[in-house]
Every structure is written in structure tokens, then in C-alpha cells.
Amino acid sequence: MSGTVTAVSSSGRYSFTKPNRDSVRLLAGLGVEGDVHAGVTVKHRSRVAQDPTQPNLRQVHLIHEELFAEVGEDGFTVAPGQLGENITTRGIDLLGLPVGTLLRLGDAAVVEVTGLRNPCRQIDTFQNGLLKRVVGRDEAGNIVRKAGIMSIVRHGGVVRPGDAIAVELPDGPHRPLDRV
């Protein structure tokens, strides 16, 4: 399984959207260099309020570009970085990956998938009604989160649009993604 990086984004301040960059540098154990969410412990405001000593399992946020086309069918216009992701991908079923999957990005960077992004109401502030398109329920009534996945940086490196993504599934029984 492989795919492509279509955009990279970061912001040094808390904001919902993140501007696109020519490249981002991933730092092992920290996240995206210069990004407000980089760090060993949690940086997302709601998580910090609960317990600022929690490990940061949300260092790098990835979204599949295919989501933009899906929500576009309902009249929403979303571009890379606008949902706060650091890396936009194409060609990989991010939501179907198990916990512990390694994603090799470009020449050197490696992130480990930790779970699903749990989208918040800020998505509706960005575009009213979009939250219901990225969080829904399946036929059995289970919550389905589509707003990307979260990861931690295992090996640093520079990531650029156009870089290849290689997927390495973990050994043993696979654990499905849950929110982190």
C-alpha cells in the first residue's frame, strides 16, 4: 500500500486552519517543527485543560484528500490545511489503518498512527454543517469519524508535497483506530 503527500501545513499559533508550506520538518518525539501542537505532552487546549501531563499522541494530523471530494458533493469547499491537518495525503485509506501502522514519508520521516482525530464544533464555525459530514453514524449506530488520523513522529525528516508514502502494517492482531 502506498500513496502521495499532496500538501503540508503548519502554524505556530492556535488557529483552526493551517497555511500550506513548501515543506515541513518532522522532529522525532515532538511533531512538526514550529507547529503549535508539537511537543512531548498534549498541546490541544481541551486536552491541556484536562491534564497537561498526558503524552502527546496527536503530534501530526493527517487527512486524506479524498475527503475533500466527498464533502464537495454536498456543496462544501475544503482545501488542504483548512481542517487543521499537517499532512494531506492521496491514495491511502487512512481511516482503515490499524493502530501502530508506520507511515514512511519521503526520504526519512516516519510517523506511527495513534488513532482518529475527534473533530470539534470549530468545524461548523469554519463551514456550517460540515461537522455532520465528517462525523456520522454507520448502519449499526456506531460513530464514524472521517476527519483524519493522528500520529507521533518516530523518525524525523523533511516532508514535501509530492513525496511518496509507504505503509508498514504492525505485526500481530490489528487494533482498529479509535479517537485520541
TrEMBL record:
Positions of the MOSC domain: 18-168
Superkingdom per UniProt: Bacteria
SUPFAM superfamilies: PK beta-barrel domain-like (SSF50800)
A Pfam family this chain is assigned to: MOSC
Record GO terms (molecular function): catalytic activity; molybdenum ion binding; pyridoxal phosphate binding
Protein name: MOSC domain-containing protein
Species the sequence originates in: Actinocatenispora rupis
Highest classification ranks of the organism: Bacteria, Bacillati, Actinomycetota, Actinomycetes, Micromonosporales
